[in-house]
Amino acid sequence: MAKDKIIGLIIMLLGILIAILYTLGSIVDLFMEAVGVSQGFKMPIISDMLPVDIFSWRLFVVLPLWLLVVLICIIAIWIGYSMLTTPAPVPLED
Fold first, then answer.
1. Distance between CA 18 and CA 66 in Å, rounded?
2. Closest to 2 in 3D by CA, of 81, 91, 84
3. In whole angstroms, what is the distance from residue 65 CA to residue 60 CA?
4. What does the pLDDT look like over 72-81, one tens digit per residue?
């Protein structure tokens, strides 16, 4: 495997890992906190299935940052995939 392909694989895997970890640490954590998992989860009433306040300041901070990080990770995954799948250039002959 060429050096470029190894670097592309590393970039792609890091992009996937960072996107997953950041999603779990931000959006999923915010939702779990709103549902009440951290305080001992009890089955909510049907009308309270999604008790996330859409005008919460935390949602306005977390969601745009999450979108920015995921967008950067998608670009990194795309670059890594391109590096991994692009064939090596043909050497020039003298």
1. 11
2. 84
3. 9
4. 999 999 999 9
Cβ atoms of residues 2 and 74 within 8 Å:
no
pTM here is 0.73
Task: Give a three-class secondary structure readout of the chain.
Answer: CCHHHHHHHHHHHHHHHHHHHHHHHHHHHHHHHHHCCCCCCCCCCHHHCCCCCCCCHHHHHHHHHHHHHHHHHHHHHHHHHHHHHCCCCCCCCC
Enumerate the domain spans of the chain. 3-38+53-85
Report d(CA 88, CA 4) in Å as an integer.
9
User: Distance (Å, rounded) from C-alpha 59 to C-alpha 15?
Assistant: 23
